[in-house]
Design goal:
Length: 225
C-alpha cells in the first residue's frame, strides 16, 4: 500500500495577492440596529481567480489625522485631556472588528461590508464620534483572514492575509450621525452600574418624577443665563 502523496504547495507566483480600497460609505436604513455599510473594493493584483475569502477586518480611528474646532476640543477633553497635551494623548482609537465572506471573483470585485454601530457613550469610539461637529473621520481598516484559490491542477488551496494589508478612508461624520439618529432620534445612551441605577430609580420614585429627563434635570444645576 502506497502512502498518499503530500499536498502540493503553491508557489508565491500562484498565490493571489489582494489589495483593498473603500469605494464608498453609507448609512443603512432598513436594518434593526444602527449600521454603516462600507463598499469594499477587492482586487487580485495578479489577476488570479479567487474561490472565496474569509475576511477579518479591524477598524480604527486615526484621530491625529484631522483638525478640531474649539467646541470639539472641549468635548474631547475627557478622552484626551486639554489640547496642549494632545501631542502625547491623541492617538489611534480602536473602533470595532467584523468579518465578511467574499464570494468567488476574478480580477476585481466590490462587496458591501456592514458595520454595526453602538451609541453607548461608555465606549471611547462612540464618545469620540459623538463629540465631532462635522467634517470627516479618518479611518484605518486592517485586514487579515484566509484566501481560497485554485492551485496548479485545480486543487483548492489556501493562503493567509497578513495584518500589513490595509486601507484608509475618510468617513463623513454625518454618515455616523445619520445611522444613529435613524434609530435613536434626539437621544443618547449612557451606561450606569447597577448600584447607581438603583439609587437613581429610588430618587425618581420618591419624588414622583415622570421621566428620566425630568429626573436628571432635577439633579443638574441650572444653566447660567
Amino acid at each position: 500500500m502506497h502512502a498518499a502523496p503530500p499536498p502540493a504547495h503553491a508557489s508565491n507566483a500562484t498565490i493571489p495577492q489582494l489589495a483593498f480600497a473603500v469605494a464608498g460609505v453609507r448609512a443603512l436604513e432598513h436594518v434593526a440596529v444602527p449600521t454603516i455599510a462600507f463598499s469594499l473594493a477587492v482586487e487580485s493584483v495578479r489577476g488570479h481567480e479567487v474561490r472565496s475569502v474569509l475576511l477579518d477586518v479591524q477598524l480604527q480611528i486615526a484621530a491625529r489625522r484631522r483638525p478640531y474646532e474649539e467646541r470639539e476640543q472641549e468635548a474631547l477633553a475627557d478622552l484626551f485631556g486639554t489640547p496642549d497635551r494632545w501631542g502625547s494623548t491623541l492617538g489611534t482609537l480602536p473602533w470595532l472588528r467584523t468579518t465578511a465572506v467574499i464570494p468567488a471573483f476574478c480580477g476585481r470585485t466590490v462587496v458591501e461590508l456592514p458595520v454595526v454601530c453602538t451609541y453607548d457613550l461608555v465606549v471611547k469610539a462612540s464618545r469620540y464620534l459623538n463629540a465631532l461637529a462635522g467634517g470627516t473621520v479618518p479611518l484605518e481598516l486592517l485586514f487579515s483572514g484566509t484566501v481560497f484559490f485554485a492551485g496548479e491542477g485545480g486543487a483548492l488551496q489556501t493562503a493567509m492575509i497578513g495584518w500589513d494589508t490595509e486601507a484608509e478612508c475618510n468617513m463623513p461624520v454625518a454618515t455616523w450621525k445619520e445611522a444613529i439618529d435613524h434609530h435613536f432620534p434626539g437621544s443618547a445612551w449612557l451606561r450606569l452600574d447597577r448600584d447607581s441605577f438603583d439609587r437613581l430609580t429610588a430618587y425618581r420614585t420618591r419624588r414622583q418624577l415622570g421621566s428620566w429627563e425630568e429626573t436628571l434635570g432635577s439633579l443638574l444645576p441650572p444653566e447660567a443665563g
